[in-house]
Amino acid sequence: MTAFIDNGTRFRLTDPTIAPNAAGYLWNKKMMVQVNCRGYAVAQYMDPEPRKYAHVPTIAGQTFMQPEQGYFTHHPGRFFYVRDNEAGTLFSAPYEPVRAGADTYAFEPGLSDVRWVVEKDGIRIETTLRLPVDDVLELWSVSITNVSGRARDISLVPYFPVGYMSWMNMGGHFDAGLNAIVCTSVTPYQKVEQYFKNRHLKDITFLSADRKPDHFEICQQAFEGEGGLHNPSALQDRADLADGDAIYEVPAAIMQWNLKLEAGATDKLRLVFGPAKDEAEIARLKRDYLDTDEAALTRAYDDYIADGAGSLRIKTPDPEFDTFVNNWLPRQVFYHGDTNRLTTDPQTRNYLQDALGMTFIHPEKTREAILRSVSQQFASGKMPDGILLSEEAELKYINQVPHTDHGVWLAVAMEVYLDETGDRAILSEMAGFADSDEQASVADHITRALDFLAGAVDHRGLPFIEQGDWCDPMNMVGYKGKGVSGWLAEASSYAMTVWAGICRASGDEATAERLEAEAKSLNERINTFFWKEDRYGRGITDDDVLFGIGSDKEGRIFLNAQSWALLSGAADEDRKQKLLAAISGELDTPYGTMMFAPAYTAMRDDVGRVTQKWPGSAENGAVYNHAAAFYAAALYHRNEGERAFSVLRRMLTGSNEADIARRGQIPLYVPNYYRGAYYQFPRTAGRSSNLFNTGTASWYYRLVIERLFGLKGDGEGVVIAPQIPAEWPSCSFTRTFRGAHFEVSFERDPALKGRTIEVDGALIDGNRLASVEAGHTYRVVVREGAAKG
Amino acid sequence: MTAFIDNGTRFRLTDPTIAPNAAGYLWNKKMMVQVNCRGYAVAQYMDPEPRKYAHVPTIAGQTFMQPEQGYFTHHPGRFFYVRDNEAGTLFSAPYEPVRAGADTYAFEPGLSDVRWVVEKDGIRIETTLRLPVDDVLELWSVSITNVSGRARDISLVPYFPVGYMSWMNMGGHFDAGLNAIVCTSVTPYQKVEQYFKNRHLKDITFLSADRKPDHFEICQQAFEGEGGLHNPSALQDRADLADGDAIYEVPAAIMQWNLKLEAGATDKLRLVFGPAKDEAEIARLKRDYLDTDEAALTRAYDDYIADGAGSLRIKTPDPEFDTFVNNWLPRQVFYHGDTNRLTTDPQTRNYLQDALGMTFIHPEKTREAILRSVSQQFASGKMPDGILLSEEAELKYINQVPHTDHGVWLAVAMEVYLDETGDRAILSEMAGFADSDEQASVADHITRALDFLAGAVDHRGLPFIEQGDWCDPMNMVGYKGKGVSGWLAEASSYAMTVWAGICRASGDEATAERLEAEAKSLNERINTFFWKEDRYGRGITDDDVLFGIGSDKEGRIFLNAQSWALLSGAADEDRKQKLLAAISGELDTPYGTMMFAPAYTAMRDDVGRVTQKWPGSAENGAVYNHAAAFYAAALYHRNEGERAFSVLRRMLTGSNEADIARRGQIPLYVPNYYRGAYYQFPRTAGRSSNLFNTGTASWYYRLVIERLFGLKGDGEGVVIAPQIPAEWPSCSFTRTFRGAHFEVSFERDPALKGRTIEVDGALIDGNRLASVEAGHTYRVVVREGAAKG
After folding, report:
1. pTM (2 decimals)?
2. A472 in catalytic set
3. How much is the ipTM here?
4. What's the CATH number for A3-305?
5. Which residues form a coiled coil (chains A, B) (predicted)?
6. Do the chains contact at B228 and A99, CB–CB below 8 Å?
């Protein structure tokens, strides 16, 4: 058995056991659902905070989204039992809970649906999950076909566990009028105030169908009995379900249809599953999504997804890469930008980087996000830890821990936005502050953010780290108020340089010069205090210990501290070669470049939190793809295109069975990390987090567009500077840009010295078009000589 | 198959499917473990707050102890797979996860151990759980015997799932030096402060054995594989476990011994399982509990339990009742009093009532508890919602919701303590306040608590309910500050009367008169404002609606409001008859007397929280045994001994299969509730909460001692006034009391008119001995005539 790409818009995995956690994900404006190849599912929706409508069988902890989601027999899922009423045999599609195996099996996540096709003993069952655009609801269609060549007597039993809804109140009954299993609950509360806050919640979970079930059951325990979920008592001995209810018992939505299928016959069924406030809402959802034309619903959601299709289409000698970049990568970027990861308080850096990616899909969203962000800035220039998306939202989890880097990301996102759109008008938009009645232009806001960063430094002029900065925060490096961050010094320097360029283009030479001087001086301090043993140290602790250096036992080299030294310009060519050698020797693995190494295996009290995470996992030496993307950005920035591409390419799991089995993932998204600690814990290295929330997607898309294929705005014009890997003899791409259309082909011509660029049939001088005409289609040919240009 | 009482100190259930949740519980000074007949387990220990060392497989929510604990395949448990290496067959003891059935099965919880004996296919496996007295550790002994008459080749595989320890860091390895599977974790935190708080935590869970395992596995998923827990892949095909580890994977402690057993041979094994801070602690625990004589350990724990054996032994025509009262009831009372339910902030009313029960076991503990309670009183006289047991403790969960009744319980507990011990010196002990430097005598503290209650009343002189009072709190009856409580008026009146009696005995006539006058006037107001439609209403809402009356649709009668009207004396004989009739008609069920009825099935906005709980569950119309015990107390108080006994008796599940199956419990404790709503949801009525934390135990023991067998202190003397049910022709009991020993027999003599009492061979006048001589054995014969005295 193998897993392979079916076509550009649909994957196919043909064995649920080689990558048990391989999953597809769907989302809409209000919800997200991740379903894996075996039938397990995790779904969340906004109400207004993230909530679930299908629960684990025990009281679940409220946490942020966890990586490497663990599944177990009674985990929520969407399962379809199929019983042969003559033979008495049972299987379940797609795989759990019976795990009977199948004659043929396919898990087929597509761009706008997730589908399974399972055939066993002459019965083929195809189940498809889609979502509507605006409602919180799962739309299931089930098609069951008798391919056995003889008449069959079958029971089809969808089993949707609802789980432990509430210790206060839960149960379920069948509502004949709604033709639905209605599981009711009351979200627990103990304080009176909470009661009033909870009143609006969708405390019902329901399953409705487009025709009456022959029987049903709602009590999970009654269904399972002594048989176990792999062989439920209620389905033994050809019995019909007992039409039971759940009375303060863990509910499940279980319906039964008894079907007589002639040879070759197909029967179809539609189901909807999701939360509701009350019966009226169920009735409305049923009307809108069961009593309507299925094709129209499918089209509406397809259109929603197509609307996020992105501005680039490529064709290269690497079809897996093409598929990813043309379809799955912009989809992942769109998911982030359109839903803000289904939180109400995204971390400031995440919010701005998600917006950065959205520039290439819906730049008006990027504009909105930048304006919203600066309007929550403090008058001091400090950026908050999270951006609140509604009046009621509040900072939660990690956003309650002060981090020092948020000011960096405004300049970074703004550069991308301006390069792509040329919309300089944004710079003079006015916005207020969180803690003052002042108004200031967006440009002034950003300058103030950078000035704040420049001021939050110690006696050496190095920025305090406090309780952490970017995503390798060691929250005890500087909690006493003394420790400083090497990476943040670099990132600040880089952001200042970027912003200085924008200020200069706006005619604000004074600010440009001031920031450039500050960046230059920062770079000098970086080299003075952090460069050691052929690498940049990650920080200096409260107790004045430089760490992240070669003589450390663990945490000897941190990727971000190297990447951003390349970006900021702190690293000259000599240092660049040295640090690249260190990365090659200590961080590169077959599964990507680790965030740092060796992973900490025990607490190092002066370095902090990171040592408490499991070695190889997020924040302790994983192949953290976001950091790897920064690394690729730095490599492109320093003209190391070959190496940059190899970093990007390794983020995608291969199409071969071994790679997919190793990582537990099919390549329809870049996960936030692959397990690292490759030299310490080889057994688990490379394993996917199976979490698709990550700023990696934005940076990946940006780098592919701006660097790999190299078509990037520059003031009123555009620069054409692809950095194509040597292994590609040729490639081509189309790209929309400021209303114009570019059709670009890249060819190698060994006869040529250097690079030529032909636009609309004529060679141009250099690599820049001074202006771009909206509506025009530019035909561009880049020819590359033997020695790259 | 049936379940029956083996002997007074050990139950035996012979079929794990008739009462799937039937469980035994063990505890020591620092931990509690509840294990059910199928092998599932819930364990908690103090560190210093309650924590778990075996977890569900997902991130668990932190809550107070939940009733009707739901189990599922991957729930924590202690399982012993037994594989026949010739036949390849597999079963697991005691029952889960294989559920193979057994040739003979017995679940045998005893007073100080829990034992299972399972025999299948000629292999008998006996597993026993014990605890040490002071350490947090499970002591397991396993004995496996070949009863097949031929040589056997067996693998024994204890499987102790450890579950989802932490999203931050978890894993496991085998430590050969410790001969232990050591599962490590780091309790998650995000804020620096929390790191320092967490440093002392026992973040390790380990399993060690008294001899080296042949093989082991630690990765739960690797063990289970595609086979499922009922048929783990790692145990298929006669394979040996792979000696694997868990690397940020859900860990389980799994060991394998390959045993060649001759016909008739027995092999034995000892295991210890629990949490530890570090390797050194594991080594110490191993030394203390594996490298030592098992019999000595058993004796030590037996002694600890025997130390709580209580002061009463009875012999009646009802052996089940005798067993319960002689062994299991004092054990339950002792558990509460000695561990404070393993919380650091027991609710004030629970703490004082648990202390009340402890009077009959270790009265010095009661004394301590009373002193501690008054020292946390506010200077206003108000009692806090919870009593903090350590410096670091804080009020949690329901203790953050203000309740108004806590002041009642001091007087109630004190009466029992004084009657039992005669220790009037406690009244002049001095104690401070939570919010003042003042010192006051215990007597003054209690007077002040009652004066506070007397003052917290509305314009009618009725006590405010605010966000709730006793355990049927409807937290929205009075949240606006206007609503009042009928029950609290009665309870205040009763407490004042009780306390007035104690004051008078101390010579404080002024306080006695003042409180008696207040109680009398309260009783009048109770009758004026709450008596309606032949019952006492439960309260009057903020919007001036009297509820808990006959014309209500739901919540028509509340048991507490009737019981305490009997106790306080508000109900005269006429009203008594009427309310008893209402209780009979509306609250009595075969499973006991419901707390109120009909249970609310929908929110009644003016009555509040209770309507949000599932009908029939705790706080919404359950047979809440604590309330039933109050009811029994009231019935005894008003000389309705027959009826009182029937209330008490119905709290014990019967020994017949149907009753045990219905309630899901064997009668080794009174649970806090049986499901009620008997007339509304008959299918689930009678089902046990399976939660043994309840003030019921204290009241039950008190009533049995003071009322049913009727030997109660009275000043310097003792009153002998048993209220023996007519169905008992005779009975006898022994009782220790203030150092004396009473041997009492009760006989019916139809020839007699009234009752005679003979003490040491001589008839006495009345029923009171003026003094009690410590060390003396009193032989008492109570003879009862045809018409009860």
Report:
1. 0.95
2. yes
3. 0.94
4. 2.70.98.40
5. 505-532
6. yes
